[in-house]
């Protein structure tokens, strides 16, 4: 099995999505090792594949707001990600993690970046290939 994981952001502020097996994924946000949100969620390959495809489409488009969307639509959504341009080859990220689904009370909102656009695209492309086989 290919590596099914992605780590985005910077060393001080990052979000990770890691496949654990059996349809379980771990969503982690870490801010300078001082604040951490870490939980598991059930996702299938088509959901993760759709999410990565939407992010990749945004990364390849010339818009200022590259991506603004949720990992899954509808049910217990654990992650909302916004990616915006910060100069010609850099991006900033805003991640909102909600371990209890669409919960406006129990959440972690974290900004990260700027990060290299080509590196972020390569990371999402790698995860996309690992869940779609393509």
Quick overview of this protein structure:
By secondary structure, this protein is α+β, with helices and mostly antiparallel strands.
Explained architecture:
- This protein is 23% helix and 45% strand.
- The protein is an alpha+beta fold.
- It has one domain (5-132): Transcriptional Co-activator pc4, Chain A.
- The protein has a four-stranded antiparallel β-sheet. A four-stranded antiparallel β-sheet has the order 5-6-7-8.
- Strand 6 and strand 7 (90-97) form a beta hairpin.
- Helix 1 (45-59) runs antiparallel to helix 2.
- The two termini are 13 Å apart.
List the helices and strands and how they pair.
Blueprint: E1 5-9, E2 13-21, E3 24-31, E4 35-42, H1 45-59, E5 65-70, E6 79-85, E7 90-97, E8 108-116, H2 117-132
Antiparallel strand pairs: 1-2, 2-3, 3-4, 5-6, 6-7, 7-8
């Amino acid at each position: 099995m290919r590596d099914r994981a992605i780590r985005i952001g910077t060393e001080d502020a990052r979000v990770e999505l890691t496949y654990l097996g059996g349809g379980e994924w771990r969503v982690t946000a870490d801010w300078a090792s001082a604040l951490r949100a870490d939980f598991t969620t059930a996702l299938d390959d088509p959901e993760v594949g759709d999410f990565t495809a939407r992010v990749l489409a945004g990364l390849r488009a010339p818009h200022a707001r590259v991506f603004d969307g949720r990992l899954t639509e509808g049910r217990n959504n654990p992650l909302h990600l916004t990616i915006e341009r910060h100069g010609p080859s850099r991006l900033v990220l805003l991640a909102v993690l909600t371990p209890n689904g669409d919960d406006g009370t129990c959440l972690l909102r974290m900004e990260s970046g700027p990060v290299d656009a080509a590196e972020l695209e390569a990371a999402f492309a790698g995860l996309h290939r690992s869940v779609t086989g393509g």
